[in-house]
Each structure stands twice: as C-alpha cells, then as structure tokens.
Design goal:
This protein has 516 residues and is α/β, with parallel strands linked by helices. It has two domains: 37-106 and 115-373, Isopropylmalate Dehydrogenase (3-Layer(aba) Sandwich), CATH 3.40.718; 407-508, Alpha-Beta Plaits (2-Layer Sandwich). The protein is built from 15 helices and 20 strands. The protein has helices at 3-6, 48-61, 75-79, 88-97, 116-123, 181-197, 215-228, 240-249, 261-274, 312-324, 328-344, 350-353, 363-372, 422-432, 479-489, and strands at 18-20, 32-34, 37-42, 66-70, 99-102, 128-134, 149-155, 165-169, 172-175, 202-207, 234-239, 256-259, 282-286, 291-295, 407-417, 438-445, 448-451, 463-474, 494-504, 507-508. It has a ten-stranded mixed sheet, sandwiched between helices. The protein has a six-stranded antiparallel sheet with strand order 17-16-18-15-19-20, covered by helices on one side. A hairpin with a 4-residue loop joins strand 13 (282-286) and strand 14. Helix 6 (181-197) packs across helix 7, helix 8 packs parallel to helix 9 (261-274) and helix 10 (312-324) runs antiparallel to helix 11. It is elongated and about 95 Å long. Bound molecules: 1,4-dihydronicotinamide adenine dinucleotide (NAI). Residues 386-396 have a biased composition (Low complexity).
Length: 516
C-alpha cells in the first residue's frame, strides 16, 4: 500500500504524521489518516460556546483530527470562585495539551477580578501575539481592492499589561509600564523568525521611543540589536502614531510589524478593521512551551444565545492552530472552503452580509455552508503562508539578558501628596534636607518641571515628584539618611513612592522632566 492510495484526501500528503485509522486497524488494508492533535477547547463566555460548536463541527467535517478536552474558564468559573476565572484543573489540562483553542472570556471594565485572557498569556509565558491581517475574498471593506497581507507581532506579557497600578492619592492613579530587555529581545526574535518562516521581506519595529525614551527606547534598541543578526530581512523603525497613519493610507506597504503590548493591542484592532473587522480576525498566542489560538473579538454579550455570531475569526484561529500542529492539508482544505463561502456570499452572518444579502445566515447555517464547500478552491485567494512559527524552546528566563558593568546612585525621586503651591513645597523640602547628603534638584507635577525656575501656567495635581540629588555619586544611597529625609517630609506631605536614580554605565537611568 502506498501512502497516496491510502490517504483520505489527495493533498493530505502535506500533513506531518500519520496513524492507522482505528476503525481499520484489524482490516487487511488499514487506512492511514493524519494523527490527532491533542488540544484544550475553552468555549468561554457569551457567544463563545456557539462559535466553538460551529468551528469544531467544521474541523471534524474538514478532516482535522483533534482530541479535544473541553474545560471551563471565564465568567462561570469566576462565579464559582476560581481566581481570574481560571480553575486549577483548566490550567493543568492546558499545560498537558500544550495547544488551546479559546473562546472569548469576559473581563469586568474598571473593576472586578484580573482578566482571564491576560492571566492565561502570562501564566504560560505566551509572549508572542501573532495577528495576521489578510484581505479576505468577498468581504466588503473600503480596502477590498488593496493587497493587504501583513502580520502584527505584538509583545504579549509586559508593558502596561503587567497590571501594576496604585492610587497615588485619592485623585491620582498610576500604572507601571514594565519593559524588559529579555522580553523585547524575545519578541523581536519571534518577529524575524516569523518573517523567515513565512518568506516575508521586512520587519517594521513600531515604538513610542520619542516620548518614553527609556521604556519604549529599550524595546527599540533590543529590536535593532536583533535586526542586526538578521541581515537578509529588511528592517525599519516607525513611531507608532505614524504607523497608524501609514496603515490607513497604504496598508499594502507593510509586511511584519513588531511592537510593544499596548501599541500592538491598538494597532492590531486597526489592521483587523482594514480587512473586515474583529469578527474576522484571528490571533495566536505563542510561547516556547505552548500555543493558544483565539478570535480577537470579545464575548459579544449583545448577541449571545441568538445564533447571530460569526464564527469566522475563531475558525481562522483554528486554522492557524492546525498549521502550528503540522496539519497543513486540513488547514488548507478548511481555509479554502471558508474563502469560497465568503466569495459566494450565501448564508453569511448578519455582520458580514451587509447590503448584498438581506437574509443573513445563522451561526450554524454559515457553518453548514462552509462544510458544504469543503473540497472547493477559491479562484481569488491563495492559501495563507503554510509555514508556522515555532518559537525557540527554553526555560523560563529569570535573569537579565545583559548585566551593566557599572552602576552608581545619583539620588532619588520621592513622590508626595501635597495640597499647597510648588513654591511652598520647595521651601519645605529644602528645609527638610538641611544637614543631609541630598540637594533638592527639581520638582515636577504630572511630568512638568515646576521648580526651579518659572512656575508654569499649568493645572496641578496633588501629586509631586521631588528629585533629590546625592551630593556625591555613590554606589548605594545612604539608607539611614534617606529614612531620615522621608520622616522629615512626612511632617508636611504624604509620600506615595520612592524611586532610586541610577547611573548605568555612566548614563542616567531616569528621565528628566518636561522643561528641565
Ligand atoms: P466584543 O468584541 O465582544 O463586541 C464588540 C461588537 O462586535 C459587538 O457589537 C458585538 O456584537 C460584535 N461582535 C463581536 N464578535 C462578533 C462575532 N463573532 N460575530 C458578530 N458580531 C460580533 O467587545 P466588547 O463588547 O468590548 O467586550 C465584551 C466582553 O468581551 C468584555 O467582557 C471583554 O472584556 C471581553 N473581551 C474578551 C476578549 C478575549 O477573550 N480575547 C477580547 C475582547 C473583549
């Protein structure tokens, strides 16, 4: 028996592994079928169960063999007391399978527990969020004639999404933006690896390093260091707001975009909009040890349970998962059936049907239509790049990528709550530091210098950064004298937090104030 005669579908020869079909194992001519992937399904909240059911049905009909373990996550798990909506058993099953297809999980806005989505990404170090935006056949958008085929590679676990926030005063909130050299290097490596795997030509690094010179600046620098190791791929840098503008003006110019978490979150919704909207946008969350695939959209509570939801984004995410698992033939077969369905325009769900079809299809009618189109190929849309991105295997990284050679302390910033004027505050702070090895160097309010020099005509919050310079640079701040200064300050103002001002290899590891 040759492989080809035994295969269920002609182009299954693309697939990676084969096993004997269980039902034919005792027969004279056993049949070879692609081996099954093991994956966890998280149907999730809102429309999640509906689109998961439709997607799984299409996968089965399309010949994708997947051993599913279905687990609970999201609002229902939260209601039962699971922290962040993620029960321990769910996390265990995910760790075992290493592959997840996830429906949307609800997160309260402005209050409530931590996001299950963000927690999952961080728990499993799924540091690369890969969001392709390809023109889809038959989907009506202002850009439908443009040849859009780009991928946003978004850092997925750092930045403002560390979720470290503090109320500094009752009226001032702070969120820490944490960017690491290791995290930035990893995501840049992932972007260049993806460019190579998919035969792409260019990686555009996008940052806001002009304003956040240290945090976004570190990201930019790390990306440039990585770019230097990949001379066959072109690389450039764009300020993120200019990137947003250029994406709207000429999206076909872009290939791979590598950016930080917050920038990537926003820009990838923009790129989803270019090719038809969130209902059509898939994403992969990749790490060295596992991969999770999901639709970009949320749980759509407004249409949940009504059979109106569009399963396309989750289906495209499942197709990405098949490619990641080496099931290239099944991925291509299902993808082509989806393209044909979109081109034909029959039974499209209401969000896609638009003016061309007053009678929109339900979620299950759309799924039936895709299934009936299995085996057909689109005339206009070639398959997506076949190769999938495999990230380098590795242990969790606990140390910095590079240790600086020399560090000294130049002073400290003490942030205080104070209700008076900057001039009064400066006088009090100077008096408080008398006899101690610190000099009041600067006071700023919301980042704007208010001392020394002219007091600006700005509104002031009751939150002030008071910068004290060490009289002489030293290896470590004198802690007893620091404590003494803070005790003296506490007599007239309430301190909120303290930052060490470090010189790293002779370069200030802290920002200056606007106007300084
Ligand atoms: P959403 O994406 O759920 O809905 C926005 C709009 O798009 C709604 O009008 C909705 O009906 C529509 N829509 C979304 N997906 C659709 C689909 N497949 N078919 C047809 N229409 C669709 O965003 P929203 O309302 O801001 O968030 C709702 C909940 O989802 C929140 O709790 C949020 O935290 C969560 N969410 C979860 C995500 C995830 O699990 N990755 C991502 C985004 C939001």
């Amino acid at each position: 028996m040759t492989l080809n005669t035994a295969l269920e579908h002609d182009f299954d020869e693309l697939d990676a592994d084969y096993v004997v079909a269980p039902e034919t194992v005792t027969k004279r001519q056993p049949k070879l079928v692609p081996s099954a992937l093991k994956a966890v399904a998280l149907p999730g909240d809102g429309i999640g169960p509906e689109i998961m059911e439709a997607t799984q049905r299409i996968l089965v009909a399309g010949g994708a063999r997947i051993d599913w373990t279905t687990c609970e996550a999201g609002a229902s798990a939260n209601a039962k007391g699971a922290a962040s909506g993620l029960p321990g058993e769910t996390l265990d099953e995910i760790a075992k399978a290493g592959l997840v297809l996830k429906g949307p999980l609800e997160t309260g806005i402005g209050a409530g527990g931590k996001s299950a989505n963000v927690t999952l990404r961080k728990h499993f170090e799924l540091y690369a969020n890969v969001r392709p935006a390809r023109r889809l056949p038959g989907v009506i958008t202002p850009y439908m004639d443009r040849n859009i085929d780009l991928v946003v590679v978004r850092e997925n676990v750092e930045d403002l999404y560390a979720g470290i926030e503090h109320m500094q005063t009752p009226d001032v909130a702070q969120c820490l933006k944490l960017i690491t050299r290791a995290g930035s290097t990893k995501i840049a490596e992932a972007a260049f690896a993806l460019a190579k795997a998919e035969g792409r030509k260019r990686v555009t690094v996008a940052s806001k390093a002009n304003i956040m010179k240290l945090s976004e600046g570190l990201f930019k620098q790390a990306c440039e260091d990585v770019a230097g190791k990949h001379p066959t791929i072109q690389s450039d840098h764009m300020i993120i707001d200019n990137l947003a503008h250029r994406l709207v003006m000429s999206p076909e110019d872009f290939d791979v975009i590598c950016t930080t978490n917050m920038n990537g979150d926003i820009i990838s919704d923009l790129t989803a909009g270019l090719v038809g909207g969130l209902g059509l946008a898939p994403s992969a969350n990749l790490g060295a040890r596992m991969a999770m695939f999901e639709a970009v959209h949320g749980s759509a509570p407004d249409i949940a349970g009504k059979g109106l939801a569009n399963p396309t984004a989750l289906l495209l995410a499942a197709i990405m998962m098949l490619r990641q698992g080496g099931k290239l033939a099944a991925a291509e077969r299902i993808e082509q059936a989806l393209y044909v369905t979109l081109e034909d325009g029959k039974d499209l769900t209401a969000d896609m049907a638009g003016p061309r079809n007053e009678k929109a299809g339900s979620t299950s009618a759309f799924a039936d239509r895709v299934i009936s189109n299995l085996g057909q190929r689109s005339q206009h849309c070639p398959p997506a790049p076949k190769a999938s991105l495999k990230l380098p295997k590795g242990k969790p990284q606990t140390t910095a990528v590079s240790a600086p050679t020399k560090r000294t302390d130049a002073g400290m910033d003490i942030f205080v709550e104070y209700g008076g004027s900057p001039t009064e505050l400066a006088a009090c702070l100077k008096a408080a530091s008398a006899g101690l090895p610190f000099t009041l160097a600067m006071i700023s309010n919301r980042g704007l210098k208010v001392y020394p020099g002219t007091v600006p005509m700005a509104d002031f919050a009751d939150h002030w950064r008071c910068r004290f310079a060490s009289r002489a640079p030293q290896d470590d701040l004198p802690e007893q004298q620091m404590a003494e200064l803070m005790a003296r300050i506490s007599k007239f103002a309430r301190w909120c937090h303290v930052e060490r001002l470090q010189m790293i290899d002779g370069t200030p590891g802290f920002s200056v104030a606007q106007g300084q």
